[in-house]
Amino acid sequence: MTLAPEAGAVHAERVRERGHLLGEDVRVRIEAGQFIPGYWYAKAQRMRRRFAEAIDAAFRGGDVLVCPTLRAPAPPVGAGRVRLGATEYPLHTAVTQLTMPFNLSGLPAISIPWKTSADGVPICLQVVGRRGADWRTLAVARRLEAASPWSRQRAAR
Length: 157
Fold this sequence. Notes:
Order of helices and strands: HHHEEEHHEEHH
Oligomer: single chain
Structural class: alpha+beta
Number of strands: 5
Helix content: 40-55%
Radius of gyration: 18 Å
Shape: globular
Largest sheet: 3 strands, antiparallel
Number of helices: 7
Protein backbone atom coordinates (compact mmCIF):
# COMPACT_ATOMS: atom_id res chain seq x y z
CA MET A 1 0.00 0.00 0.00
CA THR A 2 3.01 2.30 0.21
CA LEU A 3 4.91 1.40 -2.94
CA ALA A 4 2.33 2.48 -5.52
CA PRO A 5 1.65 5.95 -4.03
CA GLU A 6 5.36 6.58 -3.53
CA ALA A 7 6.20 5.49 -7.07
CA GLY A 8 3.25 7.51 -8.36
CA ALA A 9 4.51 10.63 -6.63
CA VAL A 10 8.08 10.21 -7.86
CA HIS A 11 7.28 9.14 -11.43
CA ALA A 12 4.02 11.01 -12.21
CA GLU A 13 5.66 13.39 -14.68
CA ARG A 14 7.57 10.56 -16.37
CA VAL A 15 4.32 8.59 -16.86
CA ARG A 16 2.57 11.67 -18.30
CA GLU A 17 5.39 12.48 -20.70
CA ARG A 18 6.80 9.05 -21.58
CA GLY A 19 4.38 6.47 -20.17
CA HIS A 20 4.26 4.70 -23.51
CA LEU A 21 7.94 3.76 -23.05
CA LEU A 22 7.27 1.87 -19.81
CA GLY A 23 6.13 -1.72 -19.62
CA GLU A 24 2.40 -1.96 -18.99
CA ASP A 25 2.90 -3.73 -15.66
CA VAL A 26 5.14 -0.93 -14.36
CA ARG A 27 3.02 1.90 -15.77
CA VAL A 28 -0.19 0.50 -14.26
CA ARG A 29 1.40 0.16 -10.80
CA ILE A 30 2.61 3.75 -10.94
CA GLU A 31 -0.76 5.04 -12.17
CA ALA A 32 -2.61 3.07 -9.48
CA GLY A 33 -0.75 5.07 -6.85
CA GLN A 34 -2.65 8.19 -7.91
CA PHE A 35 -5.92 6.62 -6.72
CA ILE A 36 -4.96 5.44 -3.23
CA PRO A 37 -6.52 7.69 -0.57
CA GLY A 38 -4.14 9.53 1.73
CA TYR A 39 -5.60 7.95 4.87
CA TRP A 40 -4.85 4.46 3.48
CA TYR A 41 -1.28 5.54 2.83
CA ALA A 42 -0.94 6.99 6.35
CA LYS A 43 -2.28 3.76 7.86
CA ALA A 44 0.10 1.70 5.71
CA GLN A 45 3.03 3.82 6.93
CA ARG A 46 2.05 3.15 10.58
CA MET A 47 1.82 -0.57 9.84
CA ARG A 48 5.16 -0.44 8.03
CA ARG A 49 6.78 1.17 11.08
CA ARG A 50 5.40 -1.57 13.39
CA PHE A 51 6.51 -4.25 10.94
CA ALA A 52 10.05 -2.80 10.79
CA GLU A 53 10.21 -2.71 14.59
CA ALA A 54 9.22 -6.40 14.74
CA ILE A 55 11.92 -7.36 12.23
CA ASP A 56 14.49 -5.26 14.08
CA ALA A 57 13.58 -7.16 17.27
CA ALA A 58 14.13 -10.47 15.46
CA PHE A 59 17.68 -9.36 14.60
CA ARG A 60 18.61 -8.94 18.26
CA GLY A 61 19.85 -12.54 18.17
CA GLY A 62 22.07 -12.25 15.09
CA ASP A 63 23.78 -10.08 12.55
CA VAL A 64 22.57 -11.43 9.19
CA LEU A 65 19.87 -13.63 7.77
CA VAL A 66 20.62 -15.80 4.75
CA CYS A 67 17.54 -17.04 2.91
CA PRO A 68 16.31 -17.73 -0.64
CA THR A 69 15.67 -14.81 -2.97
CA LEU A 70 12.93 -16.65 -4.88
CA ARG A 71 10.81 -19.69 -4.05
CA ALA A 72 11.82 -21.29 -7.38
CA PRO A 73 14.50 -20.81 -10.05
CA ALA A 74 14.23 -17.57 -12.00
CA PRO A 75 11.34 -17.62 -14.49
CA PRO A 76 11.98 -17.47 -18.23
CA VAL A 77 12.42 -14.04 -19.82
CA GLY A 78 9.02 -12.73 -20.90
CA ALA A 79 7.01 -14.83 -18.43
CA GLY A 80 3.94 -13.05 -17.10
CA ARG A 81 2.97 -15.67 -14.54
CA VAL A 82 4.89 -18.20 -12.46
CA ARG A 83 3.69 -21.56 -11.14
CA LEU A 84 4.90 -22.41 -7.63
CA GLY A 85 3.61 -25.83 -6.69
CA ALA A 86 -0.13 -25.91 -7.37
CA THR A 87 -0.52 -22.12 -7.34
CA GLU A 88 0.06 -19.68 -10.18
CA TYR A 89 1.15 -16.12 -9.35
CA PRO A 90 1.60 -12.93 -11.36
CA LEU A 91 5.30 -12.50 -12.13
CA HIS A 92 5.78 -9.47 -9.85
CA THR A 93 4.26 -11.30 -6.88
CA ALA A 94 6.30 -14.45 -7.49
CA VAL A 95 9.63 -12.65 -7.71
CA THR A 96 9.11 -10.31 -4.74
CA GLN A 97 7.45 -12.58 -2.15
CA LEU A 98 10.66 -13.24 -0.24
CA THR A 99 12.34 -9.87 -0.78
CA MET A 100 9.38 -7.60 0.00
CA PRO A 101 9.62 -7.86 3.82
CA PHE A 102 13.15 -6.49 3.76
CA ASN A 103 12.43 -3.84 1.12
CA LEU A 104 9.40 -2.72 3.10
CA SER A 105 11.28 -2.58 6.40
CA GLY A 106 14.28 -0.78 4.90
CA LEU A 107 16.91 -3.34 5.91
CA PRO A 108 20.06 -3.77 3.86
CA ALA A 109 19.70 -6.81 1.60
CA ILE A 110 21.50 -8.18 -1.41
CA SER A 111 20.82 -11.12 -3.68
CA ILE A 112 23.77 -13.23 -4.79
CA PRO A 113 23.96 -16.13 -7.26
CA TRP A 114 24.50 -19.36 -5.35
CA LYS A 115 24.21 -22.17 -7.88
CA THR A 116 22.32 -23.13 -11.03
CA SER A 117 19.27 -25.33 -11.42
CA ALA A 118 19.31 -28.51 -13.50
CA ASP A 119 18.20 -26.28 -16.41
CA GLY A 120 21.14 -23.90 -15.88
CA VAL A 121 19.00 -21.12 -14.37
CA PRO A 122 20.59 -19.13 -11.51
CA ILE A 123 19.35 -19.86 -8.00
CA CYS A 124 20.09 -16.98 -5.66
CA LEU A 125 20.35 -16.33 -1.94
CA GLN A 126 19.63 -13.05 -0.25
CA VAL A 127 21.70 -11.77 2.62
CA VAL A 128 19.81 -9.44 4.94
CA GLY A 129 21.52 -7.42 7.65
CA ARG A 130 20.57 -5.41 10.70
CA ARG A 131 19.40 -1.85 10.18
CA GLY A 132 22.40 0.34 9.41
CA ALA A 133 24.76 -2.60 8.89
CA ASP A 134 25.06 -2.13 5.13
CA TRP A 135 28.83 -2.69 4.96
CA ARG A 136 28.68 -5.82 7.11
CA THR A 137 25.86 -7.17 4.94
CA LEU A 138 27.88 -6.54 1.78
CA ALA A 139 30.99 -8.14 3.32
CA VAL A 140 29.08 -11.29 4.29
CA ALA A 141 27.51 -11.44 0.82
CA ARG A 142 30.91 -11.12 -0.84
CA ARG A 143 32.37 -13.95 1.26
CA LEU A 144 29.37 -16.19 0.54
CA GLU A 145 29.52 -15.41 -3.17
CA ALA A 146 33.23 -16.28 -3.26
CA ALA A 147 32.46 -19.65 -1.59
CA SER A 148 29.43 -20.42 -3.75
CA PRO A 149 29.15 -23.26 -6.27
CA TRP A 150 28.28 -20.51 -8.81
CA SER A 151 31.68 -18.84 -8.37
CA ARG A 152 33.55 -22.14 -8.57
CA GLN A 153 31.62 -23.04 -11.74
CA ARG A 154 32.40 -19.67 -13.33
CA ALA A 155 36.10 -19.94 -12.36
CA ALA A 156 36.32 -23.35 -14.08
CA ARG A 157 35.25 -21.87 -17.45
